[in-house]
Amino acid sequence: MTNKICISDKCTGCSACASICPKQCINMKSDNEGFLRPVINEDKCVKCGICKKICPVNHEIHDDRIEPESFAVRNIDKKIRAVSSSGGVFSALAEKILSQKGIVIAAGIDHNNVVHHKVCDNIEDLDELRRSKYVQSRIENTYRVSEEILKSGRIILFCGTPCQIGGLKSFLGKEYPNLYTADFICHGVPSPLALEKYLEYQKQSYNSEIEDISFRDKALGWNNYSMRITFSNKAQYNKSVSEDYYLRSFIMDLTLRPSCYDCSFKQIHRISDITLADFWGLAEILPEWNDNTGVSLVLIHSEKGKALLNSCSSQVEKKEIPFNKAIVKNQSFTNSVVMPSLRKNYMKDLFIMRYDKLYEKYCGMSIISRLRRKIAKFR
């Protein structure tokens, strides 16, 4: 699959090029690892070059804003915190936007277990946008929809990965006072194909279709989050991050998009208004809040972001934390993970091996034990 828009391994799949094309001759199609990439219909292309011009990885992002203000934040509603990945801050921000007849656009999962960016204009539909989804979301037409809504004067909260926010800003080409953007500290995005194979294995194992998925269930606590799957036959699967096949391969960096190993968007000065994350390291910094129910790290990059967070004062409690302390346990804020030497073979075997056998080969404890013994010989 040829990518003539940017260097192939730098492509984030943000979809800005497909969204901006005046001839609509760029389609986002899955490559051999399941990641969406732009494919140009050469018969329709007029060589205008706008796709290359607006591709966010083709030009440096210059930002002279100062070091972000950083806060530990948690929703005062414990029920919302319980169904949120971290401290329930996204819910508070989204509810504030919706209360002003605004629109929230973020990742949701459909009945086929495919993650798309969705447009939400009411509280009732907000639940599916909560919680982390550890897979790359399909942007589809949401940049174009965002532009139409912004031009109508309504406010929008758009939440996505840093590269998706970069894609949105590049597509829009101008600042809108009624646009609020929130990204998050991103470890990297796994292949949709990896999730598809994992879910196929789970459906076969339980002989049932899937009704609901939570990538960050808190039944075992925030510090030991788990994968929870509810099946149509009422069976339920729940295993911790250290035991679940999919989460473990994610943590071991085996399924990430190639661009994630050298991310162009991992910088202190973000183009988003707000960055959201788990406040890892909370026990050392704010032990009185460390109740294992979830606390968010919130980084403020603009006056708009600050105003939006302050407008949620009746829904959240927050404490300002020095920036250098706040990100100590969140190295993914500025550092990309290193591509494992096993990744290439893992992604090849993903097509041909049963998921449990794949896990045993690459992620099982026997592999880790052998590696530890091998390393010990050189000490």
Q: How would you describe the overall organization of this protein?
A:
This protein is 30% helix and 20% strand. The protein is α+β, with helices and mostly antiparallel strands and 379 residues long. It has three domains: 8-58, Alpha-Beta Plaits; 69-189 and 261-333, Aspartate Aminotransferase, domain 2 (3-Layer(aba) Sandwich), CATH 3.40.640; 192-255 and 341-373, no CATH class. Strands 5-4-6-7-11-12-3-13 form an eight-stranded mixed sheet, sandwiched between helices. Strands 8-9-10 form a three-stranded antiparallel sheet. The longest helix has 15 residues, at 192-206. 43% of the residues are buried. The model is unreliable at 370-379 (pLDDT under 50).
